[in-house]
Design brief:
With about 170 residues, this protein is of the alpha/beta class. Helices cover about 30% and strands about 20% of the residues. The chain has a six-stranded parallel beta sheet with strand order 2-1-4-5-7-8, sandwiched between helices. α1 links the parallel β1 and β2. α2 packs across α3. It starts with a strand and ends with a helix.
């Protein structure tokens, strides 16, 4: 049976964020908590993923990343070389070309190697943190399926998605 690990982005999620909702409604789902959600360091974040998954059957693990959480998954995969059942990569942040600075250290450059596991990128046409074209480029480089969800902004709490049934439908493809 699949186990779902949710990796939030910078500043954590509010209770209204779809990832927070999913942690409560998807069986076998849990959020990987970080010690710090702002002024963050890549090595701390990827170490937390490694620590959390240390005793798991990775063939049953599906990672669900949002924003900077996507970059965290990519860096974790590159650093540790593990393969999981799959990853849903929602609204990846283009860490190499941020529209405004954030206190996130060590996340550049974004890894561009093909992922060693199946993945799906979900992107929005009006996300301020990544252009649709860049998200499509990431999908090609990472070997990910690409899903354009239209104009949902950064696909976060401001998008008012609740349980986000469409997103859960994409998740089931992993």
């Amino acid at each position: 049976m699949a186990k779902y690990y949710i990796i939030p982005g910078y500043s954590k999620n509010t209770p209204e964020h779809w990832q927070s909702v999913w942690a409560n409604v998807i069986p076998n789902a849990q959020t990987i908590e970080q010690d710090k959600w702002e002024d963050v360091h890549k090595n701390d974040w990827i170490a937390r993923i490694e620590e959390t998954l240390a005793n798991e059957d990775l063939s049953q693990v599906i990672l669900i990343g949002h924003s900077l959480g996507v970059a965290t998954i990519l860096h974790w995969a590159k650093e540790y070389g593990h393969s999981v059942r799959g990853a849903l990569l929602v609204a990846p942040t283009d860490v190499d070309d941020l529209p405004e600075p954030i206190a996130a250290h060590g996340f550049t450059p974004m890894p561009l190697e093909k992922l060693p596991f199946p993945s799906i990128i979900i992107a929005s046409e009006n996300d301020v943190w990544i252009s649709l074209k860049r998200a499509q480029e990431y999908a090609e480089l990472w070997g990910s399926e690409f899903v354009n969800v239209g104009k949902l902004g950064h696909i976060n709490a401001d998008s008012n998605l609740g349980e986000w049934q469409d997103g859960q439908g994409v998740l089931k493809r992993l």
